[in-house]
Amino acid sequence: MTHASPTLSNAFIGKPEMPTDDDLAAELGRSAKALWDRLLADLAERHNIVTQEWNSYSPKAGWSLRLKRGKRAILYLSPCRGCFRASFALGGKAVEAARGSGLPQRVIQIIDSARRYAEGTGVRIQVNGPADIAVVLKLAAIKLAN
Prior knowledge:
By secondary structure, the protein is of the alpha+beta class.
C-alpha cells in the first residue's frame, strides 16, 4: 500500500561510499530490487528519464538516486530496508494536476499533507509493490508536463 512513512530510514545512512548494485540488492531484498529495476526501466522507456546520479548530502541522510531528464531533476529514489521511497518536489501546477488526475485518494492525501518547500511540495511515496510503481510513473508524467 502506498503511504508516507517518516520512520523509514535510508538503508545507507553512515556509509561513506556510493552503494553498488550488490549493496542495493542486499538492502532492498529481491522483490524490492525487482521493483526498483522495473521502475528505472519504465521511467527511461516511457519518459526518457535516463540520467542517474547517486547523491549523499551527509552521512546522516544516506544515499539517494537522483533521476533527471536533461538537466531537470524529476524524482529521487531512496533505498530503505525491504522497500524504497520515491520523492518529488511538485510545483503548484503539478499539485493541481495530480489532484485531478485520478490518482488513488491515499496518494492525494499524501500530497495534501506534504510539506511545502521553495522548490515545491515534497511528496514521498513508499514503494512496496506494482501499484506503487504505477503511482510513481503517473507522478513523474505530471511533473514533466507541469
